[in-house]
Amino acid sequence: xxxxxxxxxxxxxxxxxxxxxxxxxxxxxxxxxxxxxxxxxxxxxxxxxxxxxxxxxxxxxxxxxxxxxxxxxxxxxxxxxxxxxxxxxxxxxxxxxxxxxxxxxxxxxxxxxxxxxxxxxxxxxx
Length: 126
Prior knowledge:
Elements: H1 2-30, H2 40-44, H3 54-62, H4 72-79, E1 84-86, E2 89-99, E3 102-113, E4 119-125
Antiparallel strand pairs: 1-2, 2-3, 3-4
């Protein structure tokens, strides 16, 4: 019984890893992630638990110097409420790959605020 359970878990892990590698190869060879200009409506669009357009707009946000001059209120007006906050950091979920209910790979836009609610830095985590 224990051997069967271990074998099933091993097979599921192998299948999950191979599928992710195939997706990465497809994205690398076809250039699947196309950069697009930021669009507030598309940024906030959520399908199930995914944000289908955020990955494409990420470059336009991270490397946009004018956004770095925003205050917290201006940023919230532009990007909407973050998925979570913690000690002066705003976290916006970009993408998440899951195995069942468990997240395996998560990409997040992290914005650190100064004490006077200006943007200190913007980074991509994951």
